[in-house]
Structures are given as C-alpha cells and as structure tokens.
Design brief:
Keywords: Signal. By secondary structure, this protein is mainly beta. The chain has two helices and eleven strands; from the N terminus they run H-H-E-E-E-E-E-E-E-E-E-E-E.
Length: 213
C-alpha cells in the first residue's frame, strides 16, 4: 500500500513538473517579451493592434517590428509578432515570424474575430496606391496562426486598377478588373492548396503561395 501511494505521489509530481515546463514564460510588458524573443537583436515597434485571437477573453497584441542597429552588410529585418495577453496585464509570446514582408511605405494591422489582417503599403502617393494584405487566422488545434488568404491591389485613380486574391482554404485564385466604374472578376482558376503556412517561423521570401511558377 505504501509502495502504491509512493508511486502515485511520484507520478503526480512528475505531471506537475511537466506542466510547469510546458507553461510559457510570462513577461510584465510587451517590450520585455520582445526582448526575450530576440536576445541578440534590437527591435522597435513600427505599428501594433490589439485583438482576442486565441479566444480566452484577454486582449492579445500584434506588432510589426523593425530591427535597429543591425549589421550594415545585410538588409534590416522585419518581424510580425503576436503576444498573448494574460490576466493582470502580462504577456507571453504566442507566435513570431522569421522574415516578414517589407513595406515600402508603412503597415496596417487589423483584428477581425480570430483573424489578423496585415497590410503592407508599397505606394501611397497622390492618386497611386499599391498594397499587399495577408490574412492569418488563429488555429486552436495548431496553437498558431495559419495563412489563409492574400490580396494584392494596385490603382492609379481614374486610369488603372488591378486586384488579385488567393484563398488558401478553397484553392482559388481570382483576378479582378474595373470596367465602367464597376469591379468584376476577370479570371478565376483553381490550384493545389499547399500546407497552410504558420506564422511561427514564417518567411515572406520563401513561403509557397500556391500560384506562383
């Protein structure tokens, strides 16, 4: 009986220890969480937005970060990071990209339900605009954000208009055009859906968009 009790106690202690190891570290501020993610680099916030992506009722934080004081022999690094908010105002890292897409002008972040919309604005001068938007959606099963959509829009006001969208859930690629002031589908094709890319470790330069040659 003593042996059985001792075994049960040992199993319980091991389970508690495993749970403690699996528990992600919490940080008092978002800045401290970012510093812990990148101990050998210095990143500053470009823009951010809040949303409850993981559905726990506590506001999370998404940030576009750009590197400062990096080596001059390589391009500045951009990262997309999401921090999970914890009760009491602390944060724990939820996901972080590797090399995120460079924006020539600025970024917009928007939270819509469990989705995070990230828009890179490449042109915004007078009547000319060009943007690329990636839609990430949080997957509780995978504990990370999956890339489920992409949209490119370019426009010269009153002269030219182009738009293309990729849906990674349905495997559909659509291009649009504007005719007599109305936007309509100009081409639609199917493609083999690749495995959904995850935000953790996501590299904008190497991910398979499913439609490029």
């Amino acid at each position: 009986m003593h042996i059985t009790h001792r075994i049960s106690t040992t199993v319980a202690l091991l389970a508690m220890a495993a749970a403690a190891v699996a528990q992600p570290q919490e940080f008092a501020t978002a800045k401290a969480a970012v510093a812990a993610l990148f101990p050998n680099q210095t990143f500053v916030e470009w823009t951010s937005t809040a949303g409850n992506w993981n559905g726990d009722g506590v506001q999370d934080l998404a940030l576009i970060l750009n590197e400062v004081d990096g080596p001059v022999d390589r391009p500045m690094e951009i990262r997309l990071v999401v921090l999970a908010g914890k009760a009491g105002g602390a944060y724990t890292p939820l996901s972080a990209s590797s090399s995120y897409c460079m924006a020539q002008k600025f970024y917009n972040l928007e939270a819509k339900g469990t989705s995070l919309w990230v828009t890179a604005v490449d042109k915004a001068e007078g009547d000319v605009s060009a943007t690329t938007t990636l839609q990430f959606r949080f997957s509780p099963r995978r504990g990370d954000f999956e890339l489920i959509g992409k949209e490119n829009v370019w426009e010269v006001q009153g002269k030219e208009y182009g738009r293309s969208s990729v849906n990674y859930l349905t495997g559909k690629f659509i291009t649009y055009e504007r005719v007599k002031g109305r936007v309509k589908v100009s081409k639609e094709k199917r493609f083999v859906v690749p495995s959904l890319a995850l935000l953790n470790g996501f590299n904008c330069n190497t991910y398979d968009d499913g439609v490029s040659p």
